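Sample 3 of the quickstart, ligand zinc ion:
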Amino acid sequence: MTYCPKCGEKIPEDALFCPKCGAKTMKGVETNVPGPADELKAAFSKMSIELEKAFSVAAKEINAAFQTASENIQKSLTKDKIVCPNCGEKNPNNSVFCYSCGKKIKAE
Ligand SMILES: [Zn+2]
Ligand SMILES: [Zn+2]
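Result:
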Protein backbone atom coordinates (compact mmCIF):
# COMPACT_ATOMS: atom_id res chain seq x y z
CA MET A 1 0.00 0.00 0.00
CA THR A 2 1.04 3.56 -0.67
CA TYR A 3 -0.51 6.94 0.03
CA CYS A 4 -1.99 9.59 -2.22
CA PRO A 5 0.39 12.56 -2.38
CA LYS A 6 -2.60 14.89 -2.45
CA CYS A 7 -5.23 13.64 -0.06
CA GLY A 8 -3.28 10.99 1.90
CA GLU A 9 -5.69 8.20 0.99
CA LYS A 10 -4.36 4.66 1.17
CA ILE A 11 -4.09 3.45 -2.43
CA PRO A 12 -2.78 0.28 -4.10
CA GLU A 13 0.92 0.30 -5.06
CA ASP A 14 0.15 -0.12 -8.73
CA ALA A 15 -2.48 2.63 -8.84
CA LEU A 16 -1.63 5.42 -11.24
CA PHE A 17 -4.36 7.67 -9.92
CA CYS A 18 -5.88 8.10 -6.49
CA PRO A 19 -9.30 6.45 -6.49
CA LYS A 20 -10.52 9.05 -4.01
CA CYS A 21 -9.39 12.43 -5.38
CA GLY A 22 -8.16 11.52 -8.86
CA ALA A 23 -4.65 12.92 -8.30
CA LYS A 24 -1.81 11.30 -10.16
CA THR A 25 0.21 9.05 -7.83
CA MET A 26 4.01 8.85 -7.68
CA LYS A 27 3.73 5.77 -9.86
CA GLY A 28 1.49 7.66 -12.25
CA VAL A 29 4.08 10.43 -12.48
CA GLU A 30 6.89 7.89 -12.95
CA THR A 31 5.13 6.08 -15.76
CA ASN A 32 4.17 9.45 -17.23
CA VAL A 33 0.61 8.30 -17.81
CA PRO A 34 -1.53 10.96 -19.49
CA GLY A 35 -4.02 11.96 -16.82
CA PRO A 36 -7.40 13.60 -17.24
CA ALA A 37 -5.83 16.92 -16.28
CA ASP A 38 -3.33 16.61 -19.13
CA GLU A 39 -6.07 15.64 -21.53
CA LEU A 40 -8.07 18.61 -20.34
CA LYS A 41 -5.08 20.89 -20.90
CA ALA A 42 -4.61 19.48 -24.39
CA ALA A 43 -8.32 19.91 -25.11
CA PHE A 44 -8.18 23.47 -23.83
CA SER A 45 -5.17 24.42 -25.91
CA LYS A 46 -6.78 22.79 -28.95
CA MET A 47 -10.00 24.62 -28.22
CA SER A 48 -8.22 27.96 -27.87
CA ILE A 49 -6.54 27.42 -31.23
CA GLU A 50 -9.93 26.61 -32.76
CA LEU A 51 -11.45 29.66 -31.07
CA GLU A 52 -8.65 31.87 -32.34
CA LYS A 53 -9.25 30.56 -35.85
CA ALA A 54 -12.98 31.09 -35.53
CA PHE A 55 -12.44 34.60 -34.18
CA SER A 56 -10.10 35.61 -36.98
CA VAL A 57 -12.58 34.25 -39.53
CA ALA A 58 -15.42 36.09 -37.81
CA ALA A 59 -13.34 39.27 -37.64
CA LYS A 60 -12.69 39.07 -41.38
CA GLU A 61 -16.38 38.52 -42.07
CA ILE A 62 -17.37 41.41 -39.82
CA ASN A 63 -14.78 43.61 -41.53
CA ALA A 64 -16.14 42.68 -44.96
CA ALA A 65 -19.70 43.29 -43.79
CA PHE A 66 -18.73 46.71 -42.44
CA GLN A 67 -17.02 47.59 -45.68
CA THR A 68 -20.05 46.54 -47.73
CA ALA A 69 -22.37 48.44 -45.40
CA SER A 70 -20.33 51.63 -45.52
CA GLU A 71 -20.07 51.38 -49.31
CA ASN A 72 -23.83 50.97 -49.51
CA ILE A 73 -24.37 53.95 -47.22
CA GLN A 74 -22.02 56.04 -49.33
CA LYS A 75 -23.77 54.95 -52.52
CA SER A 76 -27.22 55.68 -51.15
CA LEU A 77 -26.03 59.06 -49.86
CA THR A 78 -24.75 60.16 -53.24
CA LYS A 79 -27.70 58.55 -55.03
CA ASP A 80 -30.23 60.46 -52.94
CA LYS A 81 -28.71 63.82 -53.71
CA ILE A 82 -30.67 65.94 -56.14
CA VAL A 83 -28.47 67.65 -58.69
CA CYS A 84 -29.87 70.99 -59.67
CA PRO A 85 -30.44 71.06 -63.45
CA ASN A 86 -29.83 74.79 -63.45
CA CYS A 87 -26.55 75.17 -61.58
CA GLY A 88 -25.40 71.60 -60.97
CA GLU A 89 -25.38 71.98 -57.19
CA LYS A 90 -26.04 68.80 -55.20
CA ASN A 91 -28.99 69.34 -52.92
CA PRO A 92 -30.32 67.11 -50.12
CA ASN A 93 -32.86 64.63 -51.46
CA ASN A 94 -35.76 66.31 -49.65
CA SER A 95 -35.07 69.68 -51.27
CA VAL A 96 -37.82 71.36 -53.27
CA PHE A 97 -35.75 74.35 -54.29
CA CYS A 98 -32.04 74.48 -55.02
CA TYR A 99 -30.24 76.02 -52.08
CA SER A 100 -27.69 77.55 -54.41
CA CYS A 101 -29.74 79.21 -57.13
CA GLY A 102 -33.30 78.97 -55.83
CA LYS A 103 -34.68 77.10 -58.83
CA LYS A 104 -37.40 74.56 -58.19
CA ILE A 105 -35.79 71.11 -58.47
CA LYS A 106 -38.42 68.81 -57.02
CA ALA A 107 -40.02 66.74 -59.73
CA GLU A 108 -43.80 67.02 -59.77
ZN1 LIG B 1 -6.10 11.35 -3.30
ZN1 LIG C 1 -29.29 75.42 -58.55
